[in-house]
Amino acid sequence: MIDAADAADAADAPPTAAERYDFRSTPYLESLLRGREPDDPLARQFLPDERELHALSYETADPIGDLPFSPVKGIVHRYPDRVLLKAAHSCPVYCRFCFRREMIGSKGDALQGAELDAAIAYIASHPDIWEVILTGGDPLSLSRRRLADILDRLAAIEHVGVLRIHSRVPVIAPETLDESYARTLVRSIPVYLAIHANHPDEITEEVVAALARLSACGVVLLGQTVLLKGVNDNAAVLDALFRKLVRLKVRPYYLHHPDLAPGTSHFRVPIEAGQELMRSLRGRISGLCLPTYVLDIPGGFGKVPIGPSYVGVKPAFGPREVMDYQGIRRSYPE
Ligand SMILES: *Cc1c(COP(=O)(O)O)cnc(C)c1O
Ligand code: SF4
After folding, report:
1. Which of 97, 98, 167 to mutate to test the pocket of ligand 2 (most atoms within 8 A of CB)?
2. Is 39 designated active site?
3. Residue 318 preceded by cis peptide, ω within 30
4. Cα(232) to centroid of ligand 2, in Å?
5. How do strand 220-226 and strand 250-256 relate by DSSP bridges?
6. How far is the CA of 105 from the centre of ligand 1 (A)?
7. For atom 8 of ligand 2, which residue has the closest CA?
8. Where are the domains of the chain?
9. Does residue 85 have its Cβ closer than 6 Å to ligand 1?
10. 236-242 contact pairs (CB < 8 A, 24+)
């Protein structure tokens, strides 16, 4: 029997990881995860883990500094020629390492009609904005009609030359991207779609079919991958993932060093480990398969490539040293 004191204790009990950070799944993802152990590279990405409750002092709710660069709700304008537009506030599933875990899902709110109008008006009134990037919450979780409306309004702005969408939907709910949804992405200006995929096992037959529908429409496909401990911090896994993507006409674009989101330290490897992985791939697999390894500097200072570097400093006398892909020093006279 539960008495009043016990009930009060239960109410005060610290939240579990699934309570602290949203948990959500799709029927497709459930079938994909069925029978996998908690430490499986796919399960790790989506199933709550109590280690998420241990936030480090330097992990923050806004790890890449979206807020200081948000002139109006839903817009992040950090670089001169491009903005992020966050039209959706949720994702069909939540990655446990998500960099916006304190801003989306139940912690976020969708852009209401007038707010969306204001965000689009901001873009229309800034002629330097050449590219609009729709990003998380997942833009492809929007209804087809709503997405079509947003893309139409953006494509109609004269100075907007390119649209880009970052999405996890192709790998966590591929069946929702049917032909009519895929055709929605075709506009009068090019639409680039960056697909977030972290492990070769994410590329199932259903995903292959969804990617084929998308590229058949003429959408340009890019890949973005987050480097994650216990998921893909391994050259063979990255090799298999990048080759699979390129075979499906998805060009790997960025390998992201994970951001300092609260309770995600168990996913991070040292930057040196990421550089070593990139070094071991360079030259051994086609350059088409190699993304740029980037870090988003905390505080909103933007993304930078973080190597590895092959170029030595220029000496006062004599040729500079450059390392080849096998690690042998060569000289480059200038
Ligand atoms: C990542 C990001 C972009 C896109 O950067 P690219 O290097 O062009 O892919 C644009 N704006 C913000 C605020 C970003 O965080
Ligand atoms: S898809 Fe992107 S925005 Fe959505 S939960 Fe995953 S990392 Fe976060």
Report:
1. 98
2. no
3. no
4. 17
5. parallel
6. 21
7. 98
8. 20-332
9. no
10. 237/41, 237/199, 237/200, 238/277, 238/281, 239/281, 239/284, 239/285, 239/289, 240/200, 241/197, 241/198, 241/199, 241/200, 241/203, 242/281, 242/285, 242/289, 242/290, 242/291
Known catalytic membership, residue 296: yes
Sign of the dihedral through C-alpha 265, 269, 271, 274? negative
Name the residue of 62, 85, 103, 133 whose CB sits within 8 Å of the most ligand 1 atoms, as the mutation to test its pocket.
133
* Ligand number with the minimum distance to the CA of 140: 2
Q: Give the chain's count of helices (H) and strands (E).
A: 11, 11
How far lies 282's CA from each of 226, 291, 323, 331, in Å? 18, 10, 12, 19
- pTM of the entire structure? 0.94
Provide the residue-wise pLDDT of the chain in tens; the chain has 334 residues.
444 545 555 567 889 999 999 999 999 999 999 999 999 999 999 999 999 999 999 999 999 999 999 999 999 999 999 999 999 999 999 999 999 999 988 888 889 899 999 999 999 999 999 999 999 799 999 999 999 999 999 999 999 999 999 999 999 999 999 999 999 999 999 999 999 999 999 999 999 999 999 999 999 999 999 999 999 999 999 999 999 999 999 999 999 999 999 999 999 999 999 999 999 999 999 999 999 999 999 999 999 999 999 999 999 999 999 999 999 999 999 8
- Which architecture characterizes domain 20-332 according to CATH? Alpha-Beta Barrel (3.20)
- Answer whether 84 contacts ligand 1 (Cβ < 6 A): yes
The C-alpha angle 227, 89, 163, rounded to 5 degrees, equals 70
Side chain identity at residue 194, one-letter code: A
